[in-house]
Each structure stands twice: as C-alpha cells, then as structure tokens.
From TrEMBL:
Region (Disordered): 126-162, 184-207, 234-351
GO CC, alphabetical: endosome; membrane
GO biological process assignments: protein K63-linked deubiquitination; proteolysis
Name the record gives this protein: AMSH-like protease sst2
Database matches in InterPro entries: JAMM/MPN+_dom, MPN, STAMBP/STALP-like_MPN, USP8_dimer
Domain MPN intervals: 362-493
Annotated family: Belongs to the peptidase M67C family.
Reported cofactor(s): Zn(2+)
Organism listed in the record: Pseudocercospora fuligena
Keyword Protease among UniProt keywords: yes
SMART domains reported for this sequence: JAB_MPN
Molecular function GO labels: K63-linked deubiquitinase activity; metal ion binding; metal-dependent deubiquitinase activity
Ranges of compositional bias, category Low complexity: 145-158
Length: 541
C-alpha cells in the first residue's frame, strides 16, 4: 500500500532490472486526494536523498524510479489531475523528474557493476565451498563430527556477512550514539557545502530534487507535457540499455525478456509494496577445533579484494537491561566501535504488519511527549486540542525522530486541524531539511486515550506515505494517559482508505482498526531511545 516500503537494506546487490520491477510495484488509490499523492512524491525524494547520503545508491535508485513511475504513470489516472489548483505543483514534479534522470543514468552502471561483482563472488564462493566439501568427504571416516560442523557453518554463510545486524530495542544506547554521530557528520557535510560557496537555495533544491549540478543541462520550455514523453523515453532507455550488453541482437532479446518492466506502463496487477521480506540477521560465530586440517579463510561476499578479506565485524554491543534518565549524559559507544561508519551496522526489523511486511524500527526521544504537553498546556487548560508532527531521518535502516513540528492549526475540544498554509509550510520545511513525516502527536484534553474515527482518517494519510508512521495520543486526565498507535494493515489501513462515510465522527463496521505500536505491544516497532535529542520547530502564527 505505502509508497515508502524500505526495510533495513537490500539483502544482496540487485541489478537495475530487479530494482525497476520493485519500484513499479505499489498500489495507487485514487480515493486519496491528489494533494496527498503529491506530498507522497516528495517523501520519495527525501528517502532517495537520505539513501544517497548513506551511500545506498540501489535504494536511492529505487525511490527515484518510483517517483518517476508515480508522476508519469499513476498521477494522470487521478480524477483531479487536470484541476487548475495543482497545475504548478504537477509541473514542478515533472521538471524534478527530468532532472533526476541524470542521477539515474549516472548510478545505473555502478549498480550493475556491483551486482556483477557480487555474482562473480558468489560463483567463487560456491566453488570454494564445493572444494572444501570434497576435502571433507575424503576425510569423512576420521573426522565425521568436524565435517558435520563445518558443513553447517558453510551453509549458514550468507550475503549479510558484510554488515552487523542489530536489534535496536536491545541496543538502545548504541543506536542513540550512532544516530548522534551520523547527524553530526551530516551537519558538518552541509556546512562544508555552504562554505564552498553554494547558496542555501541551491542546496535546498538539490536536496529536495536531487537535481544535476548543472541546471543549464535542461530545457525549461513550457510545453503542454513539460517534456514528460521525452523523460519517459529517456528513462526507459537508460534503465535497460546497459553499456555492458554487447550485441544489439542480444540487447533486443534482453528487452523482450524484461518486457514486464517497460516504462512507463502501469503494472497489470497492482499489489502492496512488499519490501525485503527476509530481514537481515546477524552472522553467528562458531568455535573451531584444533585437530582438523587447516581450512581456507572465508571470503566475504561483499568484500572482494584480498586486502579486505579480514573483515570480522566488531563485537556486538551488550544488551541494555536498564536505562539512565534521559537527562543524564550521553552514553559512550561500545569499546572499539566509535570509529565504525554507520554502514557497518543495520538495525533489523523486529516487528511486522498483520500481512507480514517488516516495519523499520522507530526510535523516539522519551522526553518528547512531556515537551509537547508543556507546549500544549495553554490549549489544554482551555479544553482545546493541540497537534504536532513527528519528523524523522533514516540511519542504518532505522527511523530516528529528530524534530517535533507544530504547524499552524485550528482547534476545538474534539478536533485539531492544520490550516492550508500550515500544511504547506510543514511539508516545505520537511522537504528542505531532508525529514520524513513519521506521524503525529495530539492531545485529548477531556477524552480518554484512543483513536477516534477522525483520528483514524488523519493517521491513514501519514501511514499511506510511510508504513512506520505512528499516532501518539496524550490524555492527561485519564489512565492510561498516553499511547502510541498505528493502523493495522490489514484490516485497518485499507478499510479507512476506502471509507466514504460523511460526518466528522462516524462508526466503522470493521473491528481491530488500530494496534499498540510500542515494543511492549504485540506488533510494536517503536522504541524509546534515552538520550536521543530532538528539535522543536513552532510554525504556529
């Protein structure tokens, strides 16, 4: 359902053809407003920008290609596509798409090269395993028990050997430290770019659209299609015509083989975007015995040179059973790990939707809720609701909430709504700062802690853009006085998206529409990270 279906990392390097196939696999629901889909398209650009920062070009390629698929093929199906209110925003989306073609063209050979190296490394590894297997078979009578142990170890070696997968809930202190270090690195990178003489406006544009360095490369003529047809043809050519494919006949044959991926055709059968069904698991070390003959060293599937063969990951940080007060000093990283880049780690998903799709872990500052209540107190004392937006960034496969944004809004005792200008300012701020809208937080000054029918519709808008999006409810007069929720998927999310009942508050026939999202819950993917800082941005007028 959601456009953004990114779980930890790709389990292996994939070819451009495989990435394109996944990029096209998402459900487009015309019951959602065109405005929501346009905002979702900007979220895809933000996901791509963050993936590029982390060096994950394959993931960035997937999000940019999906953005192209959405803008070129899906949005024209929407009933409001020709509404004059959206003309300017649609035109800008198409121009951004054309600019992103340069990125896609530059990344394609690098992605395919990595895929080729992986396949060759796999062939070498399989050959080595077979050789070791044959040696063991020769000595089976004398070393039966060792043979069994070694075969088991060889069989368990996988493509994830290059990266240490961690459970964020069991390693909260380390996760927070890793996030703080990566955020500092990104800030320093932005500052150096600014000092190099690039204007803030240009930086913001490149960050939002991943535009090419030379904007003069493009023709900004205002024609009826804004170059959409040419963009589609160019995207199709650069996605399938690789320089490494030699004869033209072979190229034609290959294009025929992948005819199901042709762009910008809408897939015949749309389905939910299922992203990386098998979560990454950490490699398990195994003790060695002294008697058997010496076995050749294992070769990493991702580290291909001899100088990189010694790639034993650092020791796993200890499990944190107790947590210090959030106001206490920032915990130090585990010994020997402070120098490691974020790419050496990934936080594996530990929670899943009701359909079995993995959910990225969301790390939430534990004192954010109280800070929000303090800001909302003037409204709460007058029996008025207050809402805020949770904005996050992705680091090593997890979502870290780093901003609490209060948009311009109107409120009653039972509702709170952002104004149109407040909505625009909110998404402009998130887009220009590479932030993902990860849900919302609001008060129930006179009601208990639950999601009303109106709250469900609000949450569905965020969750359709980002499956990990959450809703935090603060009900200071009741016990429990707060909760963190998400819509079930299914039945909650699809049911609410299809709901057309009038009225601010109405009943839904379907039960089990939402569930607890904290790690203590059955399907919880939210972890509180002691020491995780956040910024408050008050955009209220």
């Amino acid at each position: 359902m959601a456009l953004s279906r990114h779980h930890a990392a790709l389990t292996r390097p994939r070819s451009v053809e495989e990435i394109v196939k996944e990029a096209q696999d998402f459900e487009f629901n015309t019951n959602r407003s065109l405005q929501q889909w346009l905002r979702a398209s900007k979220m895809l650009l933000t996901e791509a920008a963050i993936c590029e920062q982390e060096g994950s070009l394959a993931m960035a390629y997937l999000y940019l290609y999906r953005h192209a698929e959405l803008v070129l093929s899906r949005l024209p199906q929407h009933p409001d596509y020709r509404d004059s209110r959206f003309k300017e925003e649609l035109s800008q989306a198409r121009k951004t798409l054309q600019r992103n073609l340069v990125k896609l063209e530059q990344w394609k050979p690098r992605i395919n090269q990595e895929h080729d190296r992986y396949m060759k490394a796999m062939e070498r590894k399989m050959a080595e395993r077979q050789r070791v297997q044959n040696e063991f078979d020769q000595a089976a009578r004398d070393r039966a028990s060792y043979t069994s142990s070694r075969r088991s170890s060889a069989a368990s070696t996988s493509a994830e050997d290059h990266m240490q997968a961690l459970n964020a809930n069991e390693n909260r202190e380390f996760a927070v430290n890793l996030a703080q270090r990566e955020i500092r690195r990104r800030d320093a990178s932005r500052q150096s770019t600014t000092q190099a003489g690039i204007s803030p406006a240009t930086i913001a544009e490149r960050r939002k659209g991943l535009v090419a360095q030379d904007d003069s490369y493009f023709d900004d003529r205002e024609d009826p299609n804004d170059g959409v047809r040419e963009a589609a043809r160019h995207l199709h050519r650069q996605s399938y015509n690789s320089p490494r494919e030699a004869p033209r006949e072979a190229r034609r044959s290959r294009q025929s083989t992948y005819s199901a991926y042709h762009y910008p055709r809408v897939p015949q059968k749309e389905s939910r975007m299922e992203w990386s069904a098998q979560p990454i698991r950490p490699a398990h070390s195994q003790s060695r015995q002294s008697h058997p003959p010496k076995i050749p060293a294992k070769e990493s599937l991702y580290d291909y040179t001899a100088s990189e063969l010694d790639n034993t990951p650092p020791p796993r940080p200890p499990k944190q059973d107790t947590y210090s007060n959030p106001a206490s000093a920032t915990p130090s990283p585990p010994p020997g790990e402070s120098h490691q880049p974020p790419s050496k780690y990934t936080f594996k998903p530990t929670a899943y939707t009701e359909s079995g799709s993995p959910l990225r872990t969301v790390l939430l500052p534990p004192d954010l809720r109280q800070k929000f209540l303090n800001l909302a107190h003037p409204n709460t004392s007058q029996n008025l609701e207050t809402c805020g937006i949770l904005a996050a960034t992705t680091i090593s496969g997890a979502l870290f909430i780093t901003h609490l944004i209060l948009p311009d809004q109107t409120a009653t005792s039972d509702t709170c709504d952002t104004t149109e200008s407040g909505d625009n300012a909110l998404f402009d701020y998130c887009s220009s700062n590479n932030l993902l809208v990860c849900g919302w937080i609001h008060t129930h000054p006179s009601q208990s802690c639950f999601l009303s029918s109106r709250d469900l519709h609000t949450s569905s808008g965020y969750q359709v853009m980002l499956p990990e999006a959450i809703a935090i409810v603060c009900a200071p007069r009741y016990n429990p006085d707060w909760g963190i929720f998400r819509l079930t998927d299914p039945p909650g999310l699809p049911h609410v998206l299809e709901c057309r009942k009038p009225g601010t508050f109405h009943l839904h026939e379907e039960g089990n529409l939402y569930t607890d999202a904290l790690t203590t819950g059955r399907q919880g993917h939210v972890v509180e990270g002691p020491g995780l800082g956040f910024e408050v941005v008050d955009l209220r007028k």
